[in-house]
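Weekly puzzle thread! Below is a chain. First person to post its structure in token form gets bragging rights.
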Amino acid sequence: MVTAPNPNLSATKPAWSKLFEQPAQPFALTKLEVLTGSVPEKLRGTLFRNGPGRLTRGGAAMGHWFDGDGVILGIYFTETGVQAQYRYVETQYFQAESAADTLLYPNYGTVAPGKVWQRWGKSAKNSANTSVLPLGDRLLALWEGGKPHALNLETLETLGEDNLGLGKKDTFSAHHKIDPATGEIYNFGVIFGKDATFQVYKLDAQANLLKRAQFTVKGLPLTHDFVLAGDYLVFSICPVRLQVFPALFGLKSVSDCLQWQPELGTELVILNRHTLEIISRSTHDAWFQWHFTNGFVNDHGEIELEMVRFNDFASNQQFVEIPQGSIQTYAKGTLWHYRIAPKTANILESYPMGDRLSCEFPITLDSQTGQPWDKTFIGIHRQESDIGHEIINGIACLDQKSQEYTVADMGAGHYPSEPIPVQNPDNPHQIWVLTVVFNAPANRSELRIYDGDRLNDSPLCILQLPQIIPPSFHGKWQPKKN
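Winning reply:
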């Protein structure tokens, strides 16, 4: 729905609510001031991050965090220092709403303005706000329900929609996977009809389409991510289904029409990553996940994978509440490990990886995608009591061998983004962790650099950003070319 924004976020609101008081303010390329420590000498490349920067327009608020206009942060590490720039993805929808100074389009949690008959057939806004894919000649801004938008890598200027050789109705999800050995890119999109048709894509390193296939799922589910594990692609289809009629006729938003139906169970679908043919499918007791960490094939030929698992779909309501500056819904995400038989899709073993931590945004090194990995980096809630009131307010590392967590507790009022691990090109065993942090006590946004092996130590470096950066969803590190 479209709602009026709250003009008076009071002093009783949590410290993070300031991040949603005003739209993000873009800025031109600016040298960053080092507040403490120093930038590691070998840290050279670019950190790109994408997230919703504008959630209001002309006195009206969008109905869901997922609907905000995408804005890209680029942080460039060079021999002469660190610079950053921040720029909106100027899609045709962004430009039209900017010119009209009002909301014009439906979206995931937003109903288009106007009478019911005026909403019929209106295309949803591509917010270009979820993730990024750096390619050799361009940067792609990715969104769940449409095609990517291409940006200039150096200026972040929007070049236009990039169809990647896909069909008119095809979509390209935000959570692509890249094989580190071949550079091949895997992704999917969903076409909604009577049932859902999952389009699965295999592309080369420059995002030229090599192969595609499809499979069908009964009903209209919500699937955000998938796993590359050795020779397999794994999809987990959770029991969330769309009420078609009210969504189709614009009576309610897509988000409001999504229903949790645990009696359907969660379905696993396993594909051969080379042929994109289905190997197996099976249905299990219900769970919900937004994100996976990674997957691999063990010495017994079994798939092992890791996800942040929720008991239900309540986290979606949290994402409605966050832009309003106050969270009332409890939704705990826990890191889980699964062992699966690929020929049957049967779950052989599953268990939580430390039930104390509530977490989201799990990630590991790009160089270990689809392979056994050493460390999982995640955003966490510092305390159990924070889950229903705070956004992510710490980061942690799970060592896969010792099964022990190391926590970077930044203290109250500090809100980090998804942690991005980066390898030292001269010593791949050395990992730096980069995260953009809103430091509420100092009323500023910072880039913090940690030693990945000593996350509980003080940051190696803290740099100040020119403007406050609202929480972003996902980012990518692009190493400097030799």
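Puzzle host: Confirmed. Bonus trivia for everyone else. The radius of gyration is 21 Å.
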